[in-house]
Amino acid sequence: MRMMAMQMMNNSISDAMERYKELIQVNSSYHIRHSQLLREQAQLKNNIQILLNEKRELLVEQTELPASSVEAKRFCEEAGMNICDPRAKQQQVGLGLRVRLSSCLTITIDKPM
């Protein structure tokens, strides 16, 4: 009976040792997977931060676009006025010369010689 009890105890210890080895392997695989997931989480957090920064920059650019387009439009209008103004001045000078020339011609034609 004692021998049988000793044999049962030895079998029980062997079974417990086998189960212990299995649990160590399972624990090791969970540890490896946990480490992988932690690295992946860190990478995802980094990617999120990069995307948030890009979004912030795009929002700043988006708010600056209407202001810069208004400024560009104003600049084009000013440039157009600067280009058109000399032409207008030349036309006015030419018109003034024609008026003076025609008045001179009428004066000389009207005067007897």
Characterise this structure.
- The model has no long low-confidence stretch (mean pLDDT 81).
- With 113 residues, the protein is mainly α.
- The radius of gyration is 48 Å and the shape is rod-shaped.
- The protein is 96% helix and 0% strand.
- The protein has 1 helix and no strands.
Key descriptive features of the protein:
1 helix, rod-shaped, 96% helix, mainly alpha, single chain, 113 residues
Cα-atom radius of gyration: 48 Å
The biggest beta sheet is recorded as: none
Report how far apart the termini are.
165 Å
Helix-residue proportion: over 70%
Which residue ranges are poorly predicted, with pLDDT under 50 across at least 5 consecutive positions? Answer: none
Taken in chain order, the helices and strands follow as H
- Put simply, the count of helices is 1
The total count of strands amounts to: 0
| Beta-strand percentage range | under 5%
Summed over residues and divided by their number, the pLDDT gives a mean of 81
The dominant shape is rod-shaped
The assigned structural class equals mainly alpha
In short:
The chain is mostly helical. Helices cover 96% and strands 0% of the residues. The relative contact order is 0.03.
Please render the helix and strand layout as text.
Blueprint: H1 2-110
